[in-house]
């Protein structure tokens, strides 16, 4: 099967979670995709049997992920075949045991009849009522053979085949659970597709799994087009053509840090042609294995690609990337496009835009709101400003990496908005840490405080995750502490530039500076907690 320009992918028809409802319209099945944890409703006309199309699909799809998926199918088939052979062997043994039991039952029944006959001959004075009683006992004993008793004790209904619970159980990821309680919770889905499905082990080639994954995790709405096919449309401004069709433009990406790595991974999953570069070249290896191309310098990436994205740590890194030796500017020619996704100040991004445009290039700033997990999940929020036409050209890329995007007008607006967003987030994180430490020193349970907050108006994924980090002492970076402090500093400077007071941000900034002095820079922002306990 095929949807848009996406390659087919091997999967298996399974029963959906009870909470999911089947989409209206044409007949469809719930499919689990091999080599991934992705699931989706797929229409019958989009499915093809695995074996007849296997070789054809392998020739078309050369990617490592696809081959891993095919290997997973073959491994599953081998295990299933082994189970079937064992089941057949056990079935034959059971049949032999049943035949033996029936034979013994018949012999037992004959013996009982013989004894009953002898007893009847001896009881000449017995009445007819006595004869009936003996006959009844004989008949009852004879009819209850071991096979019959086994059938009576079985709870299974006649005509209903047993289910392989292992095959039909669908693991619920935290993402799926979140969506079920979110925008799709009000939909009414049939509890199972088994009544439509000839077998829960029916293998299919269907649409590429990343598309299905986005259909679930992005809280997208499924709509019926005039053609009758299912279209996946993001409920935001980035969805122009319904399903995510990758642009035919060559994409470059500079910077494979916490955010950049997830972004590139999703661009590749969605079928984009991507060339990557990173200051530490080893970080490129994983993406090369997944189908990306390697650029030796930023200038080379820009010169060989139509649109080049960059995501680096701070204003200095952003300027060095563009203006430094073998930098972006050296690769810019008329028509080349550059999209800076770094969180920097408005002055820096304005300067970069001017030098890019002076060479005939096109410029868009597009900082992202989120963290490493949201980047990996393709759930970032993108704030864009600058060349509106370039923003539209980046549509499929933005859909691949984020759940929504905003176009904010002229260059500099996105940088300002991003700093304000991160100022609020950083200040909130410091307040959370302050509250947890105050609870501790006053003899209150930190866990109880979290439980109370999670039941109130402040409840959020951010609150829960950061509190859990603190309670578990796990400060593995999801958003570096040094970067949120940098954003607070830039936000304070933004306020100063327009004579606007930012006392809350200034206070939070001091706490983060204290945490940095305690060697917490490369930990998660939640490690600001340690500034309060030292």
Automatic annotation (TrEMBL):
One example of the protein's molecular function in GO is: nucleosome binding
Indicate whether DNA repair appears among the record's keywords. Answer: no
Q: Could you name the Gene Ontology cellular component terms for this entry?
A: chromatin
Q: Name one Pfam family in it.
A: NAD_binding_11
What the entry lists under SMART domains is as follows: PWWP (SM00293)
Q: Which InterPro entries match?
A: 6-PGluconate_DH-like_C_sf, 6PGD_dom2, 6PGDH_NADP-bd, GLYR1_PWWP, HIBADH-like_NADP-bd, HIBADH-related_NP60_sf, NAD(P)-bd_dom_sf, PWWP_dom
Alphabetically sorted, this entry's keywords are: Chromosome
Q: Name one GO biological process term.
A: transcription elongation-coupled chromatin remodeling
**CDD domains referenced in this protein's UniProt entry, alphabetically:** PWWP_GLYR1
Q: What is its main location?
A: nucleus
The segment annotated Disordered runs over: 1-23, 79-176
Q: Where in the cell is it found?
A: Chromosome
Q: Which residues cross the membrane?
A: none
Extent of Basic and acidic residues compositional bias: 79-132, 149-169
Alphabetical list of PROSITE patterns matching this protein:
PWWP
- Per UniProt, residues of the PWWP domain are 1-53
Protein's UniProt keywords contain Ribosomal protein = no
Family of this protein: Belongs to the HIBADH-related family. NP60 subfamily.
Q: What is this protein's record name?
A: Cytokine-like nuclear factor N-PAC
């Amino acid at each position: 099967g095929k949807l848009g320009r996406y390659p087919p992918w091997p999967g298996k028809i399974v029963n959906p979670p009870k909470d999911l409802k089947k989409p209206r319209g044409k007949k469809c099945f719930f499919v689990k995709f091999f080599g991934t944890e992705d699931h989706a409703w797929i229409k019958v006309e989009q499915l093809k049997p695995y074996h007849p199309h296997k070789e054809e699909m392998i020739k078309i799809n050369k990617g490592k992920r696809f081959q891993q998926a095919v290997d997973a199918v073959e491994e599953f088939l081998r295990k299933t075949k082994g189970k079937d052979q064992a089941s057949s062997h056990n079935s034959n043994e059971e049949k032999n045991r049943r035949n033996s039991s029936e034979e013994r039952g018949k012999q037992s029944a004959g013996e009982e009849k013989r004894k009953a006959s002898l007893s009847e001959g001896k009881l000449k004075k017995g009445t007819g009522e006595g004869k009936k009683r003996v006959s009844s006992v004989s008949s009852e004993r004879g009819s209850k053979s071991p096979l019959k008793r086994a059938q009576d004790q079985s709870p299974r209904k006649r005509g209903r085949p047993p289910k392989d619970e292992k095959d039909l159980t669908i693991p619920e990821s935290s993402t799926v659970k979140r969506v079920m309680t979110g925008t799709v919770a009000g939909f009414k889905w049939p509890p199972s597709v088994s009544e439509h499905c000839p077998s829960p082990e029916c293998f299919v080639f269907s649409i590429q799994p990343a598309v299905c994954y986005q259909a679930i995790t992005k809280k997208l709405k499924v709509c019926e087009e005039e053609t009758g096919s299912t279209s996946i449309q993001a409920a935001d401004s980035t969805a122009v053509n319904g399903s995510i069709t990758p642009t035919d433009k060559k994409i470059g990406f500079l910077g494979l840090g916490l955010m950049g790595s997830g972004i590139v991974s999703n661009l590749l999953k969605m079928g984009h042609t991507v060339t990557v570069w990173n200051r530490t070249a080893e970080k490129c290896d994983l993406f090369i294995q997944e189908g990306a191309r390697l650029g030796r310098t930023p200038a080379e990436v820009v010169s060989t690609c139509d649109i080049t994205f960059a995501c680096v740590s701070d204003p200095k890194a952003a300027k060095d990337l563009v203006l430094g030796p073998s930098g972006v500017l050296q690769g810019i020619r008329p028509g080349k496009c550059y999209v800076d996704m770094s969180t920097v100040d408005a002055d820096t991004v304005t300067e970069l835009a001017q030098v890019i445009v002076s060479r005939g290039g096109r410029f868009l700033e597009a900082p992202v709101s989120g963290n490493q997990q949201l980047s990996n999940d393709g759930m970032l929020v993108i704030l864009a400003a600058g060349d509106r036409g370039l923003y539209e050209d980046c549509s499929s890329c933005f859909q691949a990496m984020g759940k929504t995007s905003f176009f904010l007008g002229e260059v500099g607006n996105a940088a300002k908005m991003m700093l304000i967003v991160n100022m609020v987030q950083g200040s909130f994180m410091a307040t959370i840490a302050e509250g947890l430490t105050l609870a501790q020193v006053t003899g209150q349970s930190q866990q109880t405080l979290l439980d109370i907050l999670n039941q109130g108006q402040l409840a959020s994924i951010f609150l829960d995750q950061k509190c859990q980090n603190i309670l578990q002492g796990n400060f593995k970076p999801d958003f570096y502490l040094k970067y949120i402090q940098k954003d607070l500093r830039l936000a304070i400077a933004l306020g100063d530039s327009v004579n606007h007071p930012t006392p809350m941000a200034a206070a939070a900034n001091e706490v983060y500076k204290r945490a940095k002095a305690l060697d917490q820079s490369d930990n998660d922002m939640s490690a600001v907690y340690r500034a309060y306990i030292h």
